Amino acid sequence: MEMVLGNQAIAYGLAENGCQVATSYPGTPASEILPGLASCKVRFGMPQHVQWAVNEKVAFEIAYAAAMSGLRAAVSMKQVGLNVASDPFMSAAYMGTTGGFVVISADDPGPHSSQTEQDSRMMAMLAQVPVLDPATPLQAREMTALAFTLSEAFQVPVMLRPTTRVCHSRQNIELPPIQAAPKAPVFEKNPLRWAATPKYRLILHRQLIEKLSAIATYPATAPIRLNPEVTPSGDVIVTSGVVSAYTEDLLKDIGLWDRVACYQVLQPYPLHREFVSYLRSTYRRILVLEETMPVIEMQLADRDRVLGRLDGTVPSFGELVPEVVESIVRGVFGMPRPRPDRPQAPGKRPTLCPGCPHRASFFAIRKAAPKAIFTSDIGCYTLGLNLGAVDTVLCMGAAIGQAAGFYQAHRNHPKPPDIIATIGDSTFFHAGLPALVDAVVQQVRFVLVILDNRTTAMTGNQPTPASGFGAGREPLETVDIESLVRGCGVGYCRTADPVDIEPFVSEIRQALSYAREHGPAVVIARHPCVLHFKPDPSERRPVRVSEDCDGCGFCVQRFECPALVLEEGAERVRIDRTVCSDCGVCVQVCPKQALVVQASGASKGRDHAE
After folding, report:
1. CB-based contacts of 312: which residues, under 8 Å, 6+ apart?
2. Is residue 401 predicted with pLDDT exceeding 80?
3. Looking at domain 2-216, what is its CATH homologous superfamily?
4. Where are the domains of the chain?
5. 357-467+479-526 — its CATH code?
6. Half-sphere exposure of 247 (CA within 13 A, CB side)
7. Is the pLDDT of residue 242 over 60?
8. Separation between Cα atoms, residue 221 and residue 553, nearest integer Å
9. How large a percentage of the chain has pLDDT more than 70?
């Protein structure tokens, strides 16, 4: 038995069920699935192709082509990544597959680390693709096998939809050795299917509807009665996903386990027809507990007896954590609601890591153009919000598109504002290139700062196309960002190190000067992520607080490094040595020059640090 993360359980499920091609783009809560599969590849000597793709659309298309060749394949992403892959997802549903094809879309109810708490099951309904909803890491592994079987039985893509609490919980699971049995690919040419024109797409759509009708009676995906010993009465609870686990524990705790029937729906779409008929004919009240949209509830289509999100019994947004589930169940069954928990101490807002080069970039950007419009993007650098250098965050790649939009909105103004867009290196590869090409064609006058920390830092330091290695650390070719930028037609492209703040401020100002007259200017802010690339000890620059510090708070408020602390009533800033990375960048920030690099061997008696 091994204690494994839900995502690792999914990865093992893919490996043990013969997945030969797996692709992904990193995004929490799905990021650990592909590395888990890469570990299985090494551990069991499996001949798999495991790849981080440049974005979710490309990842989907690579894996789907493998499934079209008769192999078992999978693509994994987070729920907003499915938006990026939605074009091939919708089309693949019509064309179907020959090998088993599993689309893993990890949802983030809450949301904890996403722009939305959208429900991928709704996307499955839109695409008319069956979806499976696991409640635990073990069930996620088991449903991976079921997804492949279902996909091959009906020649359709199948979605596996874990949520954050399944992906990131741990469970003891037996993981026996895997004997690889690779299958030879066979692609049977059939243009009427694989390259169907609109006339034949109509035929494919009809076939898909017929498949869904059959899937709605497939025995292996029928709902499970969690407490079969209970005699049906007037009430029933219908659950799916991790809420099923919460509900089972709750009913046992509050004495309803032996009184109220409870079901777990394994396949929220299409909901089994016999199950729908049974519920309608047997129960007076049907409480539906699911995250986050009323997918099951809508298919029951009985507003008179169904309690859920549509009638307000269940909140219409937010995660159904155990406390919320308990409050709902107690309310429905006339039991006293639990007393509110004690008030929680206020948390600290998220901030960039100590030593993060993005902090220096944003400080310099704001200093160079304090009145500019700052568009930004998805990544840890979104926290430039705290430094006053991020005004907008929409979706992957939108920093450039929105910069163009602000330019077009203000271009005829007598004094149009400067516009500075910031985007990470991985995000630039993912979705920034088309927008940059468009900006060049339209001669959009803005500065693009590519925050190149040499990794995909926010989601666990996965490689980028510039890294030179893959998911299993195998050597790969690299793509040079500067050459790519110039290849898009950008006439001004410079690279600088943002931790040298004043020279970097000068670089931004020069880029702004060029952009005001000519069009897009690009500055690549290149410095490695402090967490992924540990600095050499010789590069450490420990800082002390001198007697010149008067506690003005400028460094804390404008630079916001967690290692700089100014407590209420204190006369001086102090340095928290437990988190300080000794990068020394803060020395360049203090207007009083009260932060100084500590001389080697100097006395610490005057060092106001802890």
Report:
1. none
2. yes
3. Thiamin diphosphate (ThDP)-binding fold, Pyr/PP domains (3.40.50.970)
4. 2-216, 222-332, 357-467+479-526, 537-597
5. 3.40.50.970
6. 27
7. yes
8. 60
9. 97
